[in-house]
Write a structure and sequence with these properties.
Helices cover about 40% and strands about 15% of the residues. The chain has about 350 residues and is α/β, with parallel strands linked by helices. The strands form 2 sheets. Strands 3-4-5-6-7-8-9-10 form an 8-stranded parallel barrel, surrounded by 5 helices. It has a two-stranded antiparallel ribbon with strand order 1-2. Helix 1 runs parallel beside helix 10, helix 2 crosses helix 3 and helix 8 (about 275-290) runs antiparallel to helix 11 (about 335-345). The longest helix is centred in the middle third of the chain and has 20 residues, at about 150-170. The two termini are about 35 Å apart. The model has no long low-confidence stretch (mean pLDDT about 95).
Length: about 350
Amino acid sequence: MDTRKLGGIEVSEICLGTMTFGKDTGRDEAFAQMDRALDAGITFFDTAEMYPVNPAVAETYGQTEQVIGAWLVDRGTRDRVRIATKISGPNGGHSRGGQGFEPGNIAAAVDGSLGRLGTDRIDLYQLHWPKRGSYAFRQNWGFDPRGTSKARVEDHMDGILTAMKDIVAAGKVREFGLSNESAWGTMAWLAAADRTGGPRVVSVQNEYGPLYRMYDTDMAEVGQKENVTLLAYSPLAAGLISGKYAGGTLPPGSRAANDVMRDGPGDLGGRRTARADQAVAAWHETARGLGLDPIHMAIAFIRQRPFPAIPIIGATHLDQLDHLIAGLDLRLDAEADKAIDAFHRAHPLPY
């Protein structure tokens, strides 16, 4: 497995996502997945204080970090892996009583994650979503940036990075990243680092994949010019690209089925649309024409973008992870690139 630098840390070019650990993925299964990932050379694991999901609820807050921490102790693997976690933005009560991140509480949140992970350091600490709001999670359709003034946002950023400077100096966090962030926000955080001497942004964890390519324009340029790596979550559109939901199918135990069982809409966070079904069918047709597996093709596509990018792969069950790992040697040629470009022009932003 090749590696990539995120600031001063070296991580594998594939990241293991863990958001189901402790809920849909039990402890033993989670241990097996982390073992399998490490055996495959994946040494970069991503989690968050609010995990497991979906949904995030106060009763399960922090359980994914606890599962990872137990594995680190049981396997003695802390020095072999890099751990990324995230602090929640303002929320409805599932994380720290609804608190987001403020200069006065971020140190305590770091300590909470360290305790659950059973470690003395977090390799990459990320802001899960901006305090000022975000156009992520399908909010782009009605996004309105007028809710906060530039001065208030910059004051908040300066306060966070001043606090983070002390946390980094204490050795509790090595590198700093963002999530669900915009081009303006990323550049504003970089400017705040220059003003305060706080940690510089090394990564931004945004949704990205063949069906959701909002990162391709302004954020791609920020990433390439500022050496900020995209950590691409939902590369398979929450499982849509597998084709398992074709024709309205709702497989038992799937993410969409579990959402329905929990009284949710079962629409995979707004991803299950008629246009998305058409796009998935077209993606499979494109893959067949190239003689490729559609899931493997999606992950390879992200790895070969013209900006720094690391796909986050995740699975509820071990066999799903095995299938993902089996395709990690795939490299797309010029014919595949051309076919994917044609697919994207025909099916832009299908949800």
